[in-house]
């Protein structure tokens, strides 16, 4: 078994690399991939850079070039659901591209012919996550994550995404990774810890909390890896 662990920004994977200690670095497709053997299981770790295009490239490379058969994403997100506070964890039950818009042709938001509005994540991984949360005594919310190529910092924009997709959190990579994994039959899991609430002070909140929230998510994902390879 070879597991891909990805984030979008360096801060999202650094806690994982620090925990692992030794790894081999390989350059591929304008990115760096960190390969290691962890408790007898092969891991490929990388941050993609921000947004749907870079995350698509990295997820595809990890599966098609590096041969990963499962993918775990760790990172931070803007909270929509008011029950999500800074540092809280949310796992995606399903994901949607909130900025995919050919509605003028009568299609629903987030839909293009041949695709689907929502993509569901792997149920087994969600069950493992629930077990991990229980063991750690942590609350883990499950919900809809909306992805788009913009850092949302406006309650009106946030509310529109919330209403339209019933979304609980938003970020910039999850749904594109989901599209790749779904197409390539690779079980995947998207975990995010809240760094801000996507309104006017989102950028300040992000700057203050992204590092601590990224650590919360990364530590949880490593506990998941421990359980998956158990
Ligand atoms: C994107 N990521 C943010 C990248 C910000 C700054 C240099 C997560 C995220 C997010 N995405 C946290 N809060 C968000 C928000 N309010 N809108 C979109 O995945 C890069």
Can you describe what's shown?
By secondary structure, the protein is of the alpha/beta class. It contains six helices and ten strands; from the N terminus they run βαβββαβββαβαβαβα. The chain is globular, with a radius of gyration of 16 Å. It has one domain (2-229): Rossmann fold (3-Layer(aba) Sandwich), CATH 3.40.50.1580. The chain has a five-stranded mixed β-barrel with strand order 5-9-8-6-10, surrounded by six helices. The chain binds ligand 4EZ.
TL;DR of this structure?
With 230 residues, the protein is α/β, with parallel strands linked by helices. It is 38% helix and 30% strand. The protein has a 5-stranded mixed beta barrel, surrounded by 6 helices.
CATH architecture type: 3-Layer(aba) Sandwich
Q: What is the helix tally?
A: 6
Rg on CA atoms, Å: 16 Å
User: What is the tally of beta strands?
Assistant: 10
Descriptive tags:
5-stranded mixed barrel, alpha/beta, 230 residues, 6 helices, Rossmann fold
């Amino acid at each position: 078994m070879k597991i891909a662990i990805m984030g979008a920004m360096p801060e999202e994977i650094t806690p994982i690399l620090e925990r692992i200690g030794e790894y081999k670095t390989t350059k591929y497709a304008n990115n760096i991939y960190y390969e290691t053997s962890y408790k007898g299981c092969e891991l490929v770790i990388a941050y993609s850079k921000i947004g749907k295009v870079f995350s698509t490239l990295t997820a595809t490379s990890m599966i098609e070039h590096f041969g990963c058969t499962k993918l775990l994403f760790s990172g931070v997100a803007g909270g929509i659901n008011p029950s999500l506070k800074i540092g809280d964890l949310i796992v995606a039950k399903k994901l949607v591209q909130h900025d995919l818009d050919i509605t003028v042709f009568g299609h629903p938001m987030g839909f293009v012919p041949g695709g689907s509005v929502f993509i569901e994540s792997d149920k087994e991984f969600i069950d493992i996550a629930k077990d991990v949360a229980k063991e750690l005594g942590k609350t883990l919310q499950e919900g809809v994550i909306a992805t788009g190529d913009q850092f949302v910092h406006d309650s009106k924009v946030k509310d529109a995404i919330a209403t339209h997709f019933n979304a609980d959190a938003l970020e910039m990579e999850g749904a594109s990774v989901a599209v790749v994994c779904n197409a390539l039959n690779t079980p995947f899991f998207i975990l995010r810890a809240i760094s801000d609430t996507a309104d006017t002070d989102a950028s300040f909140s992000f700057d203050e909390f992204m590092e601590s929230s990224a650590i919360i998510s990364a530590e949880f994902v490593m506990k998941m890896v421990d359980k998956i390879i158990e």
